[in-house]
Write a structure and sequence with these properties.
alpha/beta, UDP-N-acetylmuramoyl-L-alanine:D-glutamate ligase, 9-stranded mixed beta sheet, 4-stranded mixed beta sheet, about 30% helix, globular
Length: about 300
């Protein structure tokens, strides 16, 4: 089956501990839960897309180790095509994450992701077949090697996770930074003005995530906002990555942009019911049931 979306970028296995509060220097705190789970912006978005009923493939690099093999098992379980994943010589990427209930935040220590291998022939084939390519901060650097640029193939979505103050938004069809990143890009403008400026100058859709407040967007000069959903937060780990995947899923399914924002907000909120970024991502039917009860 041809993938509707190919996610390109970071793939990891993470260890996550849930604590009441962060430890001080030389202090030990007791975690009430420690788990290992799949992570990485591209990988979390891929799982989200798959659970929202989208046919999805992933492109990235893992190591020839047990973590890499566990990642492939996760993708198989989630019905994600991993034939475009390359196996490199460095260990699989991963993080140790401490999630604090006191602050609803997390502290992260990350092993440097492996150097991305040159995309294999299957990765190039998958990308050529897709409607959309969704990239994280690593995946966006792989587009040239994949033979893709805006207007020459699939639409391009960019999860603007890091260092986007000077990013040329005209390189992508869907640009999705946070509200804080938009403030850094355009410090003299309001969020709406900043979204309008980037969308107008890049002739694309620009969406800003706003955490629990929801999201906002501009397309073709029109401004849209969608409120967030209140849930009993266990951890916000991966919620932004979930939002990105859910947003692309709604767009692929042909929904209007305001509805896309609202539904993506709900998917991201529900993912916060789990300690890791993947376990509580809802399926399409679970999302529809939730929205029916929370309209």
């Amino acid at each position: 089956m041809k993938p509707e979306v190919v996610c390109v970028g970071v793939i990891t296995i993470d260890t996550i501990a849930s604590v009441d509060r962060y430890p001080g220097e030389d202090e030990r705190v007791i975690a009430d839960q420690i788990i290992r789970a799949g992570g990485g912006p591209a990988a979390v978005s891929a799982v989200t897309l798959a659970r929202q009923g989208i046919s999805v493939a992933i492109v990235g690099t893992i190591g020839d180790d047990e973590d890499g093999r566990e990642i492939l098992r996760i993708f198989e379980r989630e019905n994600i095509d991993s034939s475009g994943v390359s196996v490199g010589s460095a260990p699989t990427g991963g993080s140790v994450i401490i999630a604090s209930r006191e602050h609803h935040s997390r502290a992260i220590s990350t092993r440097q992701p492996p150097i991305q291998s040159k995309p294999n022939s299957r990765a190039i084939e998958l990308v050529s077949q897709a409607q959309w390519i969704h990239c994280d901060h690593v995946g966006i650097t792989q587009l040239q090697a994949l033979g893709i640029s805006r207007g020459t193939g699939p639409y391009i979505s960019f999860d603007a996770g890091y260092g986007v103050e000077t990013f040329d938004a005209a390189l992508v069809d869907l640009f999705v930074p946070t509200d804080r990143q938009m403030a850094a890009r355009h410090p003299s403008l309001s969020l709406r003005q900043a979204l309008e400026k980037d969308s107008r100058e890049s002739n694309n859709t620009v969406v800003a995530t706003r955490g629990s407040l929801g999201s906002a967007a501009v397309r073709d000069g029109s401004f849209y906002e969608a409120e967030g959903f209140a849930v009993e937060v266990v951890s916000t780990l991966g919620a932004g990555d979930v939002f990105h995947g859910a947003l692309v899923a709604q767009i692929v399914q042909g929904r209007e942009l305001p509805d896309c924002l609202r539904r993506a907000n709900a998917v991201a909120a529900l993912s916060c019911l789990g300690l890791d970024g993947q376990s509580e991502i809802p399926t399409l039917s679970e999302l529809d049931t939730y929205l029916e009860k929370n309209t």
